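Just curious: can you write whichever protein you like plus the matching structure tokens?

***
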Amino acid sequence: MILYDPALICDLRDYGIMVPVSPSRQDKIAAYLRREGADVPVHTFDSAAALLALPSPAITRTDLERVHSPAYIARLYGDRPEQELLAAYELINPDGSYHRYEPEKALKPLAALFENTLLRVSGAYIAARLALADSAGQLRHFCYYLDGGNHHARYDGPSGFCLLNDLLIAARKLQSEQCASLIWIIDVDAHKGDGSAELAAFSRERRETFRGKNPEIITLSAHMATGWPLDAESLAQAQPGRAPLVPSDIDIPISPGDETRYTALLADGLAKLEQLSGERKPDIALVVDGADVYEKDGLASSAPLALALEQCVERDRLIFAFLQKRRIPSAWVIAGGYGEEAWKPTAWFLDSLRQNPADT
């Protein structure tokens, strides 16, 4: 099942933001699947909300404050969310000049991007609910959301193009509704899921995500060993106990030249994830399926990790088979992917499920 809402696709250039994110990425994926004859159910936000009897909006301010600092959320809901958006997309240089930001070319006010973001953030939660509810067809308990993956957003502020951490917001909302108890977050974006690691750790420190001695959210991140946010400059500025210094439960750093070992390292990490859970099986896995590991990705900071298209598909098939074999529902978010080639890894993976859905 796919969650895809063309009405919510965001072209950052409309807000004067010149980050190399292609607004046609989701459309190209959907068009490719139609062309290849992939008969996968597709839901918009409205059809999913009707199916699941969800209120509108699906994510509320209370849901955000369950994860992020109430003071930070208050700033976003205040009169000037623009300052947080400027920080999120790294649009201001230290000297105050603009970086990849041309407000004179904007068609929409920057503040309006917050409202769009709020709607899109709810997609991870909606996809999770769809995955939990779906029990029909060959791809049972599987939903892929063609958006989302804001894994850098931290407790009290944005980071790395991420304003709000949709993974933790979805996980904590599912738990608050008693839709899920133990949740895995499997992050294979090129960049470490540092915000998710921080937020999961903070929730444990507040004793909010524990059953006895067992954590209720377990994080795995396979990422570049040296690229942002683990580059020398970022680490030199990092505060103890804060992202990116907070470890995931399982970190799999991939060094340049280790691409041939990627699948084996990930398989070992998934085995450790299962061991860490003991005899408990998670109620759902949230998969952060970044395409910025692709060798033709257009973002310079993801260059230290470069997988061929076939390796990207192999990575995703490995995760899919691992979860399907164990009958663990999974909700996938599209996460990082930049430039005009970024649609291909997702499209090839989803099409592979049509061709061979039971590679377990």
